[in-house]
Amino acid sequence: MSRHILHVVTNVSHYDDPDHATGLWLSELTHAWKVFEDKGFRQTIVSPQGGKSPLEPRSLTFPNYDKTAKAWRADSERMALLETTLSPDQVDAADYEAIYFTGGHAVMYDFPDSEGLQRISRDIWERGGVVSSVCHGYCGLLNLTLSDGSLLVAGRKVTGFAWQEEVLARVDKLVPYNAEDEMKKRGARYEKAKLPFVSYTVTDGRLVTGQNPNSAKATAQQVAALL
After folding, report:
1. Catalytic residue among 56, 97, 166, 180
2. Domain range spanning residue 46?
3. Is 4 marked active-site?
4. Is 166 a catalytic residue?
5. Where is the DJ-1/PfpI domain (predicted)?
6. What letters, b where the CB count within 10 A reaches 16 and e where it falls short, cover 123-156?
């Protein structure tokens, strides 16, 4: 049986200020996709609303716009996957062994309170599957409760885009909240690398999280190793 991975992407295209565009950070999808593809895993993409996932403009510039991201954009079939993502009500969680929340600042808006994504994630986790995220994808874990009402992240080690990285990226005035702080408020044991923007991945049982875009490949490799 081939393992089946569910990638989660955003539907949001801008910050609160519509003059500032955001969206999916493409390489966070493409790096993981390649890792899973090389393992022969099946892969599907879901978003909170279904349909189109816009791309983060900054992810399409040097040095973020790498070989895998360029190849994806040059492939009409792959780009079509981001125009026709499934909605949560089209997803049967029993079909998947892992869920992988991608990032981009846009996810800060539509990941945390998506009941559909929470249902899928909870089902995968409670059946013994892997829940994972990279960068801002961990916003999808902020309010994820288990059947007993407890927060998945409470007491568990996690990482994700650090506040220091928001400041260095000059978006600290644009983001709707401090994700690192919100994660700590929920009782998560937040960790980060000593230096910003370097690859850093944390595994706590079946929970795998990566800190930033450069962590996507290592995060996916850890998910694959668990599977």
Report:
1. 166
2. 4-226
3. no
4. yes
5. 27-223
6. bbbeeebbbbbbbbbbbbbbbbeeeeeebbbeeb
